[in-house]
Design brief:
Length: 405
């Protein structure tokens, strides 16, 4: 089947390589992005691989596209005529790509929810507002199909389906022990990453959102295969959909680990105004400090070779089954260097790109297809869980986990 992938950065390059390992499903891919040279380089790598790997059987073509422009997207989609458009560019392009899908009658999938360029605020409301139009067109839009959001939602649906009558609490824990040797670098797009971690924290408790200052709530947790790490409460987009889609959930929180060097640099950059998103005048030109910072930071796509260590991302569920109170931890551990050996990428891009491929595959196979706009926890988790084990992100269970205070 034919798919169009928009974007050719860290996440897209993993997703495309994983699709190409699965050529029976993905017979033809067009890679279209702002910088066509990156698409051509990836096509060349897949068609003429080194280290004794076999060339992919998937037919690949490339194109230049500005995904902020709906009519450019529409022309490209009409010309290539894919089954689905997979958005692995940036959250700013979500709505234009959804508009183009509606105009051309194509399914849609992404890994991050829309945020406007000029406001550091991500929310599902803009994309959920497309629900009726996708329903009426008989098209499926799958939102947030990376790891977090993505696998964390699938884990939640799986826990609810197989282990609980009711889930009371969910804690999502995202640990990254990767060391790339730089004093400061981000593991995915720096602009999106810094907007996320400098925002206020927020969590859902007893029917309302509780807001915190950035990094105000800190806990220590002992992660399997990583060890003890400090982690901080952040607002993360799956909290919004899970608070709605897990019936009767009483509390849901998200914690992410950060090293001291990262936090010290970030604090300093914030203090001097380098993370600001309002344009300033510089030598007669308007520049956005955060976009300038992105330009001087290492490109996340180049971190793979240098990054050593592991990620451990998962969810701890507490709830009731047959009247008994139970705790259950589902998680994945991913090794940065193993990812590099397989697809020349670090684990953050890998843990996002693999689920994007799996969600696309399930939609193409008709297993995750229904008219409307959906978050991943609204589909049957079982085929996704099976595919995670098969395609490089095996999961583990702990029926007696240490809980987060
Ligand atoms: N759910 C999760 O677990 C998770 C985790 C990490 C990241 N993400 C999401 O994954 C997405 C990709 O992240 P990444 O690290 O791969 O970012 P990245 O390396 O910066 O790649 C973004 C790609 O999009 C292209 N692009 C940007 N604006 C475009 C436009 N207007 N038209 C066409 N192409 C455009 C870029 O082109 P150039 O090459 O010209 O810059 C680049 O190829 C982001 O939305 C991020 O939030 C999700």
């Amino acid at each position: 089947m034919k798919i169009l992938i928009i974007g050719c950065g860290g996440v897209a390059s993993v997703a495309i390589q994983k699709c190409c390992q699965n050529s029976e499903v993905f017979t033809e891919i067009m890679i279209a992005s702002r910088t066509k040279a990156k698409c051509d380089a990836l096509k060349n790598k897949l068609e003429n691989p080194k280290n004794g790997k076999k060339p992919t059987k998937t037919k690949i073509s490339t194109a230049q596209v500005n995904a902020d422009n709906v009519s450019e997207l529409v022309a490209l989609i009409q010309q290539f005529n894919p089954e689905i458009v997979v958005n692995l560019a940036l959250p700013y392009q979500d709505l234009t790509i959804m508009d183009a899908c509606l105009a051309t009658g194509k399914h849609y999938l992404d890994t991050a929810n829309y945020e406007p360029l000029d406001t550091a605020k991500f929310e599902y409301k803009w994309q959920w507002a497309y629900r009726e139009r996708f329903e009426q067109a008989g098209l499926t839009a799958i939102l947030g199909c990376g790891f977090d959001p993505g696998v964390t939602g699938v884990f939640s649906a799986y826990a609810l389906k197989h282990h609980f009558d009711k889930i009371h609490y969910i804690d999502i824990l995202d640990a990254n022990d990767g060391d790339h040797g730089y004093p400061f670098a981000t593991n995915f797009n720096p602009e999106i990453n810094i907007r996320e971690v400098t925002a206020n924290g927020r969590y859902w408790q007893e029917g309302k959102w509780i807001e915190t200052a950035p990094m105000e709530i800190k806990r220590e947790y002992n992660f399997v295969q990583i060890g003890k790490k400090d982690m901080y409460l952040l607002y993360h987009e799956e909290l919004e959909s899970l608070a709605k889609n897990i019936p009767g959930i009483e509390r849901i929180r998200f914690f992410m680990t950060f090293g001291q060097s990262y936090l010290t640099h970030l604090q300093c950059l914030q203090n001097v105004g380098m993370t600001a998103i309002e344009p300033i005048d510089f030598n007669g030109q308007k520049i956005v400090p955060l976009q300038f910072l992105k330009a001087v930071l290492p490109d996340p796509a180049t971190l793979g070779e240098r990054t050593k260590g592991k990620t451990n991302i998962g969810c701890i569920f507490s709830g009731t089954k047959n009247g008994r109170y139970e705790n259950y931890y589902l998680y994945n551990v991913c090794d940065h260097q193993d990812c590099y050996k397989e697809v020349e990428s670090q684990a953050i891009s890998y843990t996002t790109g693999v689920p994007a491929m799996i969600g696309t595959m399930l939609l193409l196979q008709g297993l995750w297809r229904k008219p409307g706009v959906f978050n991943v926890e609204e589909f049957d988790p079982d085929p996704f869980m099976e595919a995670l084990n098969k395609y490089g992100l095996p999961w583990h269970e702990n029926f007696n986990p240490v809980l987060v205070r």
